[in-house]
Amino acid sequence: MTGSVNTDGGDAVPLSGPRFHTDPADLYREMRRDHGPVVPVTLPGDVPAWLVVGYRELHQVTADPSLFPRDSGLWNQWDNIPEDWPLRPMIGQRMPSVYYTVGDEHRRHLRMINQALEGVGHVELRGWCEELADRLIDGFCGRGEAELVAEYAKPLPVLALARAFGFPDADGPALTRTMSDLADGGPEAIEAYGEFVGLMYKLVADKHALPGSDVTSRMLAHDDPQAFTDEEYALDLTALTAAGHLPTADWIGNSVRLMLTDDRFGASLTGGRSSVAEAMNEVLWEDTPTQILAGRWAARDTWLAGRHIGAGDMLLLGLAGANLDPKVHLDGYASADGFRNGNSAHFSFSHGEFQCPFPAREMAEIIARSGIEVLLDRLPDVELSVPADTLTRRSSAFLRGMTELPVHFSPAPPVGGRP
């Protein structure tokens, strides 16, 4: 099965439609059956790309930054992309940030970011998360019902990240709204991106004037022979917040949904702690928040799994598809109850030189786990208010999260989260 993505479009799979958020496992199984591990797809506007859904092939692509760099400037489709294309902010164009730079320049940004993130104390971060979680739960605990996505899972990560990066808490709602509009990739995405970057420029200016003990201030104080510009700082902060907010929110929402609908996790609702970590790991394998990641671009003509990949072709990282690849699910990879026994060899944080930085992963796990544990401590009898099969997902092929998670519980008094 051969052919370039730019000439073999007859059997391309549209990267849209309800099945990406209703039954993605079956959809990826059909893609693998009909096309193999590298699938020709089309993005909105009939823009061609390759979707890599094979575990081995995805490892090959992410482990070879010379052949498959994350350099969108190589894309052979830019002349066909309109300025208002809704996925343009997600793809990017050679911006001077950690997400879009390559080679030595990428590593220079990464050193600065890792040093700044490593300064976030885990005990302090967990304390912030517990405080913010209590404050959010205080807002609805007396009602006996809540919609956990909008009222809890979405605001908690952005409030925690805003605190760590040096934003005032009052900016949390604006950050939450712009990030949600940007990730959904709809008509508001372009405007949301501009507003979001504007907030980051303001944060950089504020920290120049009055530095503190936060990630942004540590970035500005980083010692580098070649000084970073304010544009670079702002775009790096944009990338960090975008990568950290909605995937962490969806990690919380998807994990709570699993714990409320799967009998294996019933013990956690009465205070068990091991089940929280197991549910979170299960989600990263089977229901990962980041389903598809853009992207890599072929530096030259090459072959991958029998497909001819042309120079400048875009390859989308099918993280969810690779996690579900039957070739990696060998006998004994899970215990009798289905748990992965701590197996974290999934692609949910990507892989290789451009994978999610390790300090950022640790922060995401602390935020998500703290949020789930505080919720279950405060509302131990929480249950879904609707049948599980009526829950809906965000209409995105790229990010998988609940649109709503309505629950009910015994009304409880507020604990008085600190302002």
Short description:
The protein is 45% helix and 9% strand. With 419 residues, the protein is α+β, with helices and mostly antiparallel strands.
Please tell me about this protein's structure:
With 419 residues, the protein is an alpha+beta fold. It has helices spanning 19-22, 24-35, 55-62, 88-91, 103-118, 122-138, 148-153, 155-165, 172-184, 189-209, 215-220, 230-261, 274-286, 319-323, 358-378; strands at 13-14, 38-43, 47-52, 145-147, 293-297, 302-304, 307-309, 314-317, 383-384, 406-408. The strands form three sheets. It has a five-stranded mixed sheet with strand order 1-2-3-8-5. A three-stranded antiparallel sheet has the order 4-10-9. A two-stranded antiparallel sheet has the order 6-7. A hairpin with a 3-residue loop joins β2 (38-43) and β3 (47-52). The protein is globular and about 65 Å long. The termini are far apart. The model has no long low-confidence stretch (mean pLDDT 87).
Please identify the oligomeric state: single chain
Mean pLDDT across every amino acid position: 87
Q: Could you tell me the strand content as a percent range? A: 5-15%
Helix content: 40-55%
Strand order of the largest sheet: 1-2-3-8-5
Global shape: globular
Structural class: alpha+beta
Cα Rg: 21 Å
Low-confidence stretches: none
State the major sheet. 5 strands, mixed
Tally the helices.
15
Work out the number of β strands.
Answer: 10
End-to-end distance: 61 Å
Give helix and strand order, one letter per element, not per position. Answer: EHHEEHHHHEHHHHHHHEEEEHHEE
